[in-house]
Amino acid sequence: MQKPPLNWSMIKVGENTGALDKSLLNVSYFYDRDVNELMQKMLKLLEPALTVILGLILAFIMMSVLGPIYASFGKMKI
Length: 78
Description:
mainly alpha
């Protein structure tokens, strides 16, 4: 027989002891902790990706501004 998840066990114990509110608070604590850990992992992955994307956008803007200037300098005759 498969063991029920911890959350269901905590709710069952809370119902049996009459402290369902405390059990639900504990369950919400575990869910909040899991969500916070997942968000931290996602942010750690997202930061380098955003840095690369912003660097590429900046490089495109610099080339579009400085490219014509360098081209005009190349056409000048001394």
